[in-house]
Amino acid sequence: MTTPSINTPNKKSPQLVKAKLKAYNGEAEDIELMFNPTDISFARSVKWESKQGNRGATLLPKVNFSGVDPYKFTLKQLLFDTYETKKSVMTEYVNKIKKGVETIDREDDKRPPVYIFTWGQEYFHCVITSLTYNLTMFLTDGTPVRAMVDIALQEVDKNNLPKGKDSKSKGKDRKPNRSLGPTD
Fold first, then answer.
1. Residue in 134, 126, 118 with CA at minimum distance from that of residue 76
2. Count of the separate structural domains present in the chain
3. This prediction's pTM
């Protein structure tokens, strides 16, 4: 009988992989979820346009496909707890998450950071579109030690990430970028 090596996964007690929001290009701190979400809901809309008076043989309006919206997804009821260590849950976790809805200042690029949502695999490049947190437990001195957090995320195109004035868009009507300087 051979002894399993340390690097061999054990099927009886698999290694727990935590979900993360990894900051793209080091724009902010990574956000590691203390407890994994119980579920993730994904939503995406498809855009169809119809014009008044433009009707087919059945008198229903003719519709034209005009694109897709990005995936939107929510991580609900994420629990963060620092009771054992007696440290502030705000300092240890929530303040890092709050940076996702605040602007970063990188050269000519002022916007919230982009993240890559991973949980064993890479799901999406995304941005945080809303954050709700409730502080639910406190030490006797008022230090918050437990928080319930909901984070709404929206997919961004990993091939055309926000980076200031430059874009990888190649449409025929796209005008070339021009620098703004003292000669303009």
1. 134
2. 1
3. 0.72
Give residue-wise pLDDT tens across range 71-93.
999 998 999 999 999 999 999 99
Distance CA 166, CA 160 (A): 9
Domain extent for 104: 76-159
Which position has the token pair 């629990």?
Answer: 79
Integer Cα distance of 58 and 45 in angstroms = 26
In a domain, 168, yes or no: no
- For residue 14, is it within any domain? no
Whether the Cβ atoms of residue 6 and residue 15 lie closer than 8 Å to each other: no
Q: Is residue 54 part of a domain?
A: no
SS (H, E, C) 32-72: ECCCCCCCEEEECCEEEEEEEEEECCCCCEEEEEEEECCCE
Q: Is the CA virtual torsion 23, 73, 94, 122 positive or negative?
A: negative
The answer to the question of residue 15 being in a domain is no
